Amino acid sequence: MDCCEHKMKHTPRSEEDIKALKSRINRIIGQLNGIAKMIEENRYCGDVLTQIAATEKALEAVGLNVLSAHMNGCVKDDILNGKFETIDETVELIRKLK
């Protein structure tokens, strides 16, 4: 079985990558908490929407980072090993990120 058929990555993320991803996710959690507070405080809709857009972009950046690692790891390895069905799976993953 290749890494894409498991629930765990075949090639572990580096401690540095894990730390960076967790840091970005924690910032996104902070942004979400800020949005909740803005709504509780009955803040102007435009300001809330601006923060929602910023949070969406931040989450998208995390997703693209994970996708890039996936393509440079699992996908590349599978293609080199003749497992071209991974391409279809990757296209579906990209669709999910939209």
Topology:
Layout: H1 15-40, H2 45-80, H3 85-97
Helix pairs in contact: 1-2, 2-3
Strand segment tally: 0
Q: What is Rg?
A: 17 Å
Low-confidence stretches: none
Strand-residue proportion: under 5%
Overall pLDDT level: 91
Largest sheet: none
Helix content: over 70%
Our measurement of the CA-to-CA distance between the termini, rounded to an integer number of angstroms, reads 28 Å
Order of helices and strands: HHH
Counting DSSP H or I runs of 4 or more residues, the number of helices is 3
Shape: elongated
Question: What is the SS-derived class?
Answer: mainly alpha
Question: Main traits of this protein?
Answer:
98 residues; mainly alpha; 3 helices; 77% helix; elongated
Overview of the structural elements:
This protein has helices at residues 15-40, 45-80, 85-97. The longest helix is centred in the middle third of the chain and has 36 residues, at 45-80. The radius of gyration is 17 Å and the shape is elongated. The two termini are 28 Å apart. The protein is mainly α and 98 residues long. The protein has a domain at 56-98. The model has no long low-confidence stretch (mean pLDDT 91).
